[in-house]
Recover the amino acids of this structure.
């Protein structure tokens, strides 16, 4: 009985092993431990003593021995089965642990990647504007004198427009590599965005900075090999110095940007240091760009409509839609006072998308008011036309306002690279939508006439430069007449712009011009005035 009792003491040791999470393999070895079988062996000894004392086996003793052996067999079977289950569980735990470790590793990698992307440009791998702000602020906090270089690629837009955006991305990556390979004075390179880069140089010594900039500019002017083509670009650089020009990083960047714009316009000068004399003109442009962005959000832009008069039926059959900016201080501004800046800053993409939506909305409103639908023509910039989201924005606007695409006409210029695969695909998609296309300012661009017969174009617009003095200038009159004959043979409509005299109107009608547009017919007016005058 002492042996039976001592067997119970072993379970305390076993509990301690499990409680301290010792490896299960160590516990499994105890299956063959003599101490584990104290209780069973003690019972067998007790039965043996009883048998000996009774001078032999009797039925009860034999039954007890058999029962005990059966219990031992059952116990051994149960213990081995438990051991098998424990081993299976251990295997599953190990597999799950490995899975969790792999997931943790992936999560760590994703976290590291997210941290990297938060401070780096995904295209070039350079630190981005956020990282620039951090580093520049750190340098400024340490009272470090440094120069800021604001670099803009002069011909990047041309590469994007004439080749494609994939080539443009490749060019940006190669530019980033050259900047990093040729930077001096332990400078640091950042990507501002688009085709703009920022460089911090830990020196304000004019000669050292100029030498570093000259080397960078020369490196960028070397030939770039892009998909088997040799491309040459150049760069304009604006330079500002901390703390001489500004003690605030944002203001320092603005002043470097101002110097860069001045260098871009300066003949033969590839870089300029910031000077207070540069501030007024360039700063006003920056202010106006900011006001444009806020103005669009505040609803300061509006549409004006100039009637298109159809000569064969003597009635207004459409209108060209022109944008106006109701500036809070300068009043109503025509397009030529803000569109060039919008083009330069690429804000024209957002502005153009707003214009298309407003045109569709206005057409929908007039139709709901019971007026006969008219054709509305919208001028599309090259930047907007080549933007990857242009077709999707156009489709969304037509769908949102349920506008019949046959009544929308997009005016494009000859400056669009008609040989570019992306441009041709966009034209084809627009044609599939049922939207009409016209070539604006026809005859003033540089595209080949061979494209006219192959492109899905419906209308040619004769530039006002040919129309306004054609009755006095024989050459212009011949050119207008030639365009009309050619368009008639190609079954294209023609719109003559800038018609201001009755004699011009008669001549154009006699020569088969389809539409005329100009002050003789009507000036551009707001939507409500156009409705009352031409739709009523």
């Amino acid at each position: 009985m002492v042996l039976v009792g001592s067997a119970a003491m072993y379970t305390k040791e076993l509990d301690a092993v499990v409680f301290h999470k010792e490896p299960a393999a160590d516990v499994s070895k105890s299956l063959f431990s003599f101490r584990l079988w104290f209780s069973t062996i003690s019972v067998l000894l007790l039965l043996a003593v009883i048998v000996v004392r009774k001078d032999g086996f009797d039925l009860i003793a034999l039954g007890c021995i058999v029962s005990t052996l059966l219990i031992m067999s059952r116990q051994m079977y149960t213990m081995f089965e438990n051991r098998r289950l424990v081993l299976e569980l251990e295997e599953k735990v190990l597999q799950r642990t490995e899975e969790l470790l792999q997931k943790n590793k992936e999560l760590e990698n994703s976290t590291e990647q997210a941290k990297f992307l938060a401070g780096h440009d995904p295209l070039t791998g350079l630190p981005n504007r956020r990282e620039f702000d951090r580093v520049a602020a750190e340098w400024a906090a340490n009272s470090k004198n440094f120069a800021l270089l604001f670099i803009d690629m002069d011909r990047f837009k041309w590469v994007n427009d004439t080749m494609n955006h994939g080539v443009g991305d490749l060019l940006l990556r190669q530019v980033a590599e050259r900047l990093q390979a040729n930077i001096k004075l332990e400078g640091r390179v950042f990507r501002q965005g688009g085709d703009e880069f920022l460089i911090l140089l830990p020196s304000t010594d004019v000669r050292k900075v100029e030498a570093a900039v000259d080397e960078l500019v020369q490196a960028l002017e070397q030939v770039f090999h892009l998909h088997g083509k040799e491309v040459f670009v150049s760069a304009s650089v604006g330079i500002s110095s901390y703390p001489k020009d500004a003690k605030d990083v944002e203001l320092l960047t603005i002043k470097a940007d101002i110097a860069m714009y001045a260098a871009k316009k300066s003949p033969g000068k590839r870089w300029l240091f910031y000077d207070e004399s540069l501030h007024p003109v360039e700063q006003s442009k920056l202010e106006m760009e900011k006001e444009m962005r806020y103005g669009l959000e505040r609803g300061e832009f509006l549409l004006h409509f100039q009637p298109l008069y159809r000569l064969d039926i003597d009635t207004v059959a459409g209108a060209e839609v022109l944008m106006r900016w109701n500036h809070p201080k300068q009043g109503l501004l025509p397009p030529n006072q803000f569109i060039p800046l919008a083009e330069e800053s690429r804000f024209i993409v957002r502005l153009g998308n707003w214009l298309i939506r407003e045109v569709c909305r206005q057409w929908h409103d007039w139709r709901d008011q019971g007026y006969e639908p008219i054709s509305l023509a919208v001028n599309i910039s090259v930047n907007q036309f080549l933007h990857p989201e242009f077709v999707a924005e156009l489709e969304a606007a037509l769908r949102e306002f349920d506008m019949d695409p046959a009544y929308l006409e997009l005016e494009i210029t000859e400056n669009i690279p008609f040989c570019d695969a992306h441009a041709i695909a966009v034209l084809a998609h627009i044609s599939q939508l049922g939207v009409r296309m016209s070539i604006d300012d026809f005859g003033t661009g540089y595209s080949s006439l061979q494209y006219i017969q192959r492109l899905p174009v419906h209308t040619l617009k004769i530039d006002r430069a040919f129309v306004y003095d054609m009755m006095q200038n024989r050459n212009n009159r011949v050119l207008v007449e030639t365009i009309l004959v050619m368009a008639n043979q190609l079954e294209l409509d023609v719109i003559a712009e800038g018609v201001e005299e009755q004699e011009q109107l008669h001549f154009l009608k006699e020569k088969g011009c389809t539409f005329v547009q100009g002050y003789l017919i009507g000036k551009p007016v707001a939507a409500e005035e156009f409705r009352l005058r031409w739709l009523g």
Summary: The radius of gyration is 41 Å. Residues 21-29 have pLDDT under 50 and may be disordered. The CA atoms of residues 284 and 467 lie 36 Å apart.
